[in-house]
Design brief:
This protein is an alpha/beta fold. 32% of the residues lie in helices and 23% in strands. The mean pLDDT is 97.
């Protein structure tokens, strides 16, 4: 079974994070919601509180196939988490998947991971994609990095993660089940 960790801080964007959690669980991918701030409950940017499965200290990163970083006003606090940033860099360097949506692709830009790569981000934040070939597609995959632009692209982002981990057939099947594809 594929395993994914999605990392939360207060003021995360609820739709971006929870759409991914929902789609991956529907697809049979084990996804763990983990707080990087050591909290058992994290509150999103629209005052929706979500019970976490774990804290970052509980995560066995070696068992994960992917790290996902949702966006929102709290994104800078994800970037401040040294343990998470060390793992994002390690995953990238070792060819394991990393994914980010909305403001969170700025983390990849700030880490220097996007040089010469295609990337996308929330509109108006393109300068944060340091060294990247900026794209305006809903979802962009560059090697082992998957990025998306915001709340309105969360379904496409989640389904792209399913495709990468389980294949196009499973992604198409799930898309039809949730009436994303007709």
């Amino acid at each position: 079974m594929k395993k994914v960790g999605i990392f939360f801080v207060d003021r995360f964007e609820e739709i971006e994070a929870l759409t991914v959690v929902d789609l991956l669980r529907r697809a049979g991918i084990e996804i763990t919601m983990a707080s990087v701030e050591g909290k058992s409950k994290v509150t999103g940017s629209h005052n929706i509180s979500v019970e976490m499965d774990a804290t970052i200290d509980d995560i066995d990163f070696d068992s994960l196939d992917m790290i996902v970083c949702p966006g929102g006003p709290g994104t800078k606090n994800l970037e401040k988490c040294e343990k998470l940033m060390e793992q994002v860099k390690s995953f990238h360097d070792n060819g394991k998947y990393i994914a980010a949506i909305c403001a969170a692709p700025m983390i990849f830009g700030h880490m220097g991971l996007l040089k010469g790569k295609k990337a996308c981000i929330f509109p108006g934040m393109e300068e944060e994609l340091i060294g990247a070939e900026v794209c305006f597609d809903d979802v962009v995959q560059s090697d082992n990095m998957i990025m998306s632009r915001g709340m309105g692209t969360a379904m496409a982002f989640g389904l792209k993660i399913v495709e990468v981990l389980l294949g196009r057939e499973e992604e198409q099947k799930l898309g039809k089940q949730v009436v994303y594809y007709k």
